[in-house]
Amino acid sequence: MPQTSRLASGRSAWRRALALSAATTLIVTSAPGCAPSPSPQANAANSGRQIDTRTPPGIRAQQTLDMLNSDWPIGPVGVGTLAAADKVESVQTTMEALWWDRPFALDGVDIGASVATLHLTSSYGARQDIRIHTDDGGWVDRFDLDTRAPTVKSWQDIDAVLSKTGARYSYQVAKVDDGHCNPVAGTNARESLPLASIFKLYVLHALAGAIKNGTVSWDDQLTVTDKSRAVGSSGLALPAGPTSRFARPPRR
């Protein structure tokens, strides 16, 4: 009987080991198929550098980088897990503006007593430093952004900087002499490209003319629509409906 008992016990242990081995193999082989693959943006921002997260500033630096490189928009709930309560709004405003330029590559990080400075490069090549200060509770109570201006000493430097952005661009610099416009420098000057923000100047110019001509009044109500609020401007927080001045758009 003792021998039979030991044999049964040995078989039972062997079965448990086999089952555990099979389960482990199943988990290992199934995990890659179940886990989502890293997004191209995350891959693009991965420079192989690591942030030491053994201190509160290091933890907040890593959290900041993760939030900026995430596809989830920046919002008060997420920022509320990062910043002190009275700093959520200001930190959110800064991070929202940065988020559109993702992914960010980590060039380096400096960590000191209650402070960490992230050295980042945006998707279009801008070099930016984010200085994060934490309070006694480990919450971010200062969040400062500094964009390092590129070194430009020649027209060639301008092309070098612009080409790093990966964007299509064109420009021309000219000198007006005796009423004649003489080109001095430029790239792709014959290529016509849309100039996004300059359209605002056209609208403002037309609006000024309409007011001068009396077709628009300062007392007109501005109708804000959901469509006009969906153009990516984080600063347009007005509700839809007639809430401000100038309801009628200027006619050109």
Automatic annotation (TrEMBL):
Protein name: Beta-lactamase enzyme family protein
InterPro entries on file: Beta-lactam/transpept-like, Beta-lactam_cat, Beta-lactam_class-A, ORF_12_N
Domain (ORF 12 gene product N-terminal) ranges: 53-140
GO MF annotations, alphabetized: beta-lactamase activity
UniProt superkingdom: Bacteria
Record's keyword annotation contains Magnesium: no
Residue stretches making up the Beta-lactamase class A catalytic domain: 184-236
Keyword Signal annotated: yes
Gene3D superfamilies hit by this protein: DD-peptidase/beta-lactamase superfamily
GO biological process: beta-lactam antibiotic catabolic process; response to antibiotic
SUPFAM superfamilies recorded: beta-lactamase/transpeptidase-like
Keywords assigned by UniProt, alphabetized: Signal
Region of interest (Disordered), residue spans: 31-56, 231-252
Pfam families xrefs: Beta-lactamase2 (PF13354), ORF_12_N (PF18042)
Signal peptide feature range: 1-35
Organism: Mycobacterium intracellulare 1956
